[in-house]
Amino acid sequence: MHPSFHFRLWELTPPAKIDDMTNPNFTRPGAVDLSALSAAQPVAGAAGGGYVTDITEAGFQDLVGRSMQHPVIVEFHSPRDTGGAAVSADLAALVNAAEGRFLLARVNVDAEQRLAQALGVTAVPMVVAIIGGQVAPLFQGTRDRADISAVLDQVSQLAVANGMTGRAQPTGSAAPERAAEPATDPRFEKADAALAAGDFARAVAEFDILLAATPGDPEATAGRAQAALLERSASFDGAAVVKAAAERPNDVAAQLDAADLEVIQGEYAPAFDRLLGLATEVGPDERETIRVRLLELFEVAGRTSSEVLRARRRLTTVLF
């Protein structure tokens, strides 16, 4: 199944504060500024085999690309931190036992200071997830295996709920001998390759080709909506978008950008409320523009999410 959570890391909000990462429970994804790292070339090496790998700054963009298919767990650690060794061991054991539901990428903060700074790491161990290119803080500090297992279960549930059913490929000598499951539906290989490369316009075009062959295909429809969102917002300046929306409440273009930004940040209900409220105040042509955008954003959020179901009912009322 094609993932319905295609996001990328943009310069939209500051890195998450460490206080936001101390909650042992899963927290809402937040965007992180990694624009300075985007030119890096993918390089990664195995760290213990199975589904565990060491990652450097040079390999981080490749890691983001992989997160379009399956969740990536990133552990920031230091060899000097003896207290974090148990966390590392438990994470590796749990991820390997999941047999491809996750990839565990380990970052040595002593060697990768710029990458750690970009992610707002001020203490180790710190663990985050990357899901569809978006960073979700998981926990900071030590946790026992039961707590870590519970957090990983929540990550898995979020991924499945959003249609992300790809499997990580094993790395290193400890890889299982059985044949790996296909990471993606082969129909989406070209579109996914374009997304991983950051060529969002090409991804939209690839999804259009799929939809021409299979009109109404739900996975292709969702994929196209996500790729279109990425294409529109790739050059966003978050602060400028927020400022324009506040200064021009009746400007449809400004409000569409603001809604896109809110959806990227996981704020679905505010995005839908923003556009639905505006739709009641504009003419038929602009109302149609808003309707089309809302339908796209519904696909990004997930057709069965509670926010989408509520907004869809309200949209019917606004239109008729």
Describe the protein.
This protein is α/β, with parallel strands linked by helices. The protein has three domains: 52-162, Glutaredoxin (3-Layer(aba) Sandwich), CATH 3.40.30; 188-233, no CATH class; 236-319, Serine Threonine Protein Phosphatase 5, Tetratricopeptide repeat (Alpha Horseshoe), CATH 1.25.40. It is 46% helix and 10% strand. The protein contains twelve helices and six strands. Strands 1-2-4-3-5-6 form a six-stranded mixed β-sheet, sandwiched between helices. Helix 2 links the parallel strand 3 and strand 4. The longest helix has 18 residues, at 284-301. The protein is globular, with a radius of gyration of 20 Å. Mean pLDDT is 78; it is low at 1-48 and 173-183.
Quick recap:
The chain is α/β, with parallel strands linked by helices and 320 residues long. 46% of the residues lie in helices and 10% in strands. The chain has 3 domains: 52-162, 3-Layer(aba) Sandwich (Glutaredoxin), CATH 3.40.30; 188-233, no CATH class; 236-319, Serine Threonine Protein Phosphatase 5, Tetratricopeptide repeat.
Layout of SSEs?
Elements: E1 44-46, E2 52-55, H1 60-66, E3 72-77, H2 85-97, E4 103-108, H3 113-118, E5 126-131, E6 134-140, H4 145-161, H5 189-196, H6 200-213, H7 218-233, H8 238-247, H9 252-264, H10 268-279, H11 284-301, H12 306-319
Parallel strand pairs: 2-4, 3-4
Antiparallel strand pairs: 1-2, 3-5, 5-6
Helix pairs in contact: 2-4, 5-6, 6-7, 7-11, 8-9, 9-10, 9-11, 10-11, 10-12, 11-12
